[in-house]
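Quick one:
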Amino acid sequence: MRNGLVVLGVMLFSMTSAVAQVSIGIGVPGISIGVNLPVYPRLVLVPGYPVYYAPRMNANYFFYDGMYWVYEQDNWYASSWYNGPWGLVSPETVPLFILRVPVRYYRQPPAYFRGWSSNEPPRWGEHWGNDWTQRRQGWDHWNRRSVPRAAPLPVYQRQYSGSRYPRVVQQQQQLQSRDYRYQPRDAVVQQHYQAQRSQFGPAASPHRGRAPQRAVQRQPGRPTAQDPGKRPEGNGVRQPEQRIGS
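Output:
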């Protein structure tokens, strides 16, 4: 019996450690977080905040600094496309302005929101505990007169709905690079954005407007572009380099 309890304790500790190490994760295409959008949602700017919310959705759905954010089943998720794939976001790496959105803009608030002021942000410190509060000190204090401008909405995604929605992340990245030039300004959002792109690799972009380079014929005793820094044999006098396309 004692040995069984020891084994169980080791397993629980391992599971807890694995969860604690989660910071920025990338969702797997096809995974369900309880949100499935057949079309691009209607998004409205939260007054006084650089954050949009979806008033017609039965979900805690937001857009901030070029990415979508969803609070579902006590977890935060992020994506650069309106219907995922979604990446898990740890409480320690949720952007500050997402945390600051007032309770009234959560269209499906969890039960523990009850009794909290609708015009104030959720009491995340009470929910996530002292460790989180110490790491995110000052999250609920900011200069309301210097709120950054909201990022433009990626409305180009409206044309990709239903069966036209790009499920392959590389395809999403390629479309975004072509049709949405905005880059995140929030340092935390930049980390999530780069983590998503590096996880799946950069999108392939065609070279436009570039003339093909002409192959250089190698000549004895003369360096080429493929052999930079190689000196010619002979008297040691450096010969002029042959330019590509000249």
